[in-house]
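Help! Submission page says 'invalid entity' but I think these are all valid:
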Amino acid sequence: MAKSKFEYVRLFEADDRCLPNTWIVVRVDGKGFHKFSTEHEYEKPNDIKALSLMNRAAMSVMEEFKDVCLAYGQSDEYSFVFRKETQAYSRRSAKLSTNVCSLFTSAFVYYWNEYFPTSKPRYPPVFDGRTVLYPSNQNIRDYLSWRQADCHINNLYNTTFWTLILKGGLTPAEAESKLKGTLSGDKNEILFSQFGINYNTEPEMLRKGTVLVRRKIPVALPNGGTREKSQIVQEHVDIIGDEFWNTNSHLLTVT
Amino acid sequence: MAKSKFEYVRLFEADDRCLPNTWIVVRVDGKGFHKFSTEHEYEKPNDIKALSLMNRAAMSVMEEFKDVCLAYGQSDEYSFVFRKETQAYSRRSAKLSTNVCSLFTSAFVYYWNEYFPTSKPRYPPVFDGRTVLYPSNQNIRDYLSWRQADCHINNLYNTTFWTLILKGGLTPAEAESKLKGTLSGDKNEILFSQFGINYNTEPEMLRKGTVLVRRKIPVALPNGGTREKSQIVQEHVDIIGDEFWNTNSHLLTVT
Amino acid sequence: MAKSKFEYVRLFEADDRCLPNTWIVVRVDGKGFHKFSTEHEYEKPNDIKALSLMNRAAMSVMEEFKDVCLAYGQSDEYSFVFRKETQAYSRRSAKLSTNVCSLFTSAFVYYWNEYFPTSKPRYPPVFDGRTVLYPSNQNIRDYLSWRQADCHINNLYNTTFWTLILKGGLTPAEAESKLKGTLSGDKNEILFSQFGINYNTEPEMLRKGTVLVRRKIPVALPNGGTREKSQIVQEHVDIIGDEFWNTNSHLLTVT
Amino acid sequence: MAKSKFEYVRLFEADDRCLPNTWIVVRVDGKGFHKFSTEHEYEKPNDIKALSLMNRAAMSVMEEFKDVCLAYGQSDEYSFVFRKETQAYSRRSAKLSTNVCSLFTSAFVYYWNEYFPTSKPRYPPVFDGRTVLYPSNQNIRDYLSWRQADCHINNLYNTTFWTLILKGGLTPAEAESKLKGTLSGDKNEILFSQFGINYNTEPEMLRKGTVLVRRKIPVALPNGGTREKSQIVQEHVDIIGDEFWNTNSHLLTVT
């Protein structure tokens, strides 16, 4: 079709291709989810249904983007790690962040009532997104460690805070005051000595967050026997130490 | 809370603030909507319900972002024009594009069954987003003219194409062949002489797309009388010529 | 010639084209010129030879880059304003800043001994460069006003400071102490009442800096008569107020 | 001093800091040096004086920028490799490229008559500059290999081309025609069989270009004995193969 005289405005679009040979992370973050979780009566300190819905939305992203080799989620955020050599959307930063963010949001609303069957969200939930580049394997590991350390710190705090309220009868202000200046050891001690809770036996999904990776899984064949099929699996494991990376060394290797 | 030794990875996030004193457009575009519209049995050549749902999603964006002074939508795309002087998200490009794109997507799924009450989408729909800067008033007008000219060209083509099929009994291949190389006048002639259709009397929403602007609307007060209230209204008008801009000169003025 | 297997590294070069339809300013700044001026015994508070050499170097830039419509210099810095619509180096930011900066530096060293005939610089002088975009005519005028206001503030200070030392017999520390917290009016008063100097009659090159523009100048023809020829001229005039811009309105008009 | 109302224009300067933990290369390239070398009667195919002046200018850059761990030059270009972890100029791209480019240019003019004592350049020579990022050690090695391969290809061509003219009596057009489509082996053969020249015994500076690195050199002490001192040395060695990198492994190691 004929081009209009207005076509020149396309030249104002900037080229935002990411530096080659770097890890590309797209992280989505819930917008105003403190308020959203309160208004939707998320259970405190953790709502398994809400976390599962986050994981479901992340699965949709990972099914769509074959070059995402690992995703990590906790609380109201999810990070998607694209292989260093990905050519998805020609590595254009905005294309990657908006497509991932839109699909994640879409799936979150779409699958909502599989996790909250008796209700509908009160309003459309929103996630923002960003693209960040990490040049080295150490950098991408440190990025993921940063998010998992954040998960640990926040979850220990929230678990103690809400236990003081729900089981200890404190007001939120009293609980906040009691926790002010405490270290990890102090919070573990409060949980154990006052409430008999061993934090280290709390569910791993809460303490570690969720890692999504692709694994070859044997699937049964109609005529008997099995064959290996790549599937996305959810794991709740430590990704700060070396063990995970030693046993999953393929993740950091250019294929 | 204590910062972890991994915090340094935050320094890898780039500063992507938009040049000050320029119009910021965020455009969202349906991803794979040719396929999506077929799989969801959108009426051809236009599905009023689907366009209305697009408009509904755009209303959500405009309600949230007070600095969007005008939005323009057609087909599976919507452009949101932020005031030149907006400081929303400190003018960070990715924040703007992902928030707008996520909210648009979320509202599209959220309000789906107000427009398609008997069904649910077969899978989560996705929109991508981009941020583009336009320095001058002429540039932003030309951008919007580009999109409306695109609407006109595509809608005239699609209307003729589908009329040849649905009323003329042609196959899609025959219709495509017949339209190859035709100009606007040729298509108008086919519609009129063969099918008695005057294209210029087709609904304006289809021919012009939809403009969203804020207008002061008188609202009734409980005790009688009225007061003016700002409301977002949908208009299906020409925005290529000068008339719209003369009567809405405030849109291009820094407030 | 055959391409080597290493050619792929070219893909790591980023596209840095400037937004269309914006004023492009390249500013060069002397690096460590406080030290440089001392080591080369620049006269205080102003060295006419040094400023003239700066102007000579700027002339070289403007002769080379036809799309520089105006340049403004003061102290150890020079700003080059490219027309909004320039396509020089495809508007690539680094190409513009490095070419301008290199030519300016080269000419500064090259013409040094036309201004300092008895000596050679003690070491190679360096200027850094940067590219900044300004969308509107008001923005580019404000940019130039900012530099000229800076010239005024610094020159009034330096003139008073050095007069107190050279004519008043103060030490630098005493002069600095005396000027601390003074306003413009105070400095004018010190110059006038203590030294009989009317600052407003100081040379305009010092108070206003130097503006380079192209003017049609009549040149004599061999056979008698004249014809107009475009030449770069140096002016020492106010560019903050409207007068300059009213009489040079072509500078801000797209050609 | 008081800030003027024009200060806001500073906000239009973009943040252009380079991604952390990546190699930063600043490459300077002669602008129009084909013409420049002809007008200054550079000897063909290579002018040792001109190459030595390039090396001298590069030495100035490396003396100033302690974080340049290696520089590589050939023909009218020089590449400066900043350590991955450099914080020079806060890694701001334009600051790095313009400072390096300006100093290189300045030194080139400044030291000109140490190499061309009987003349002065006919006009100020210009070099452009660019900043490119390379994430991995392999990438930076491939970048340097690319430049050295370029040196080899061009120098073999130029040597053969000029030998055909200067010793073989061909016109430039005849020489060009004769070399069209030839491979490296063909050119080696022409040189050897027609002119008795073994290309592999040509000076290494011409065949390999120049590598600048810092080496600990023993310097004599006044009272006898020696101590090690870091000095910049020029080497004309292969940097494509592994040997150089094995014996200089510290260059690629974060310190």
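Support: the input was valid. A stray whitespace character was the problem, and the output above is from the cleaned input. Chain B has one domain: 16-153+208-250.
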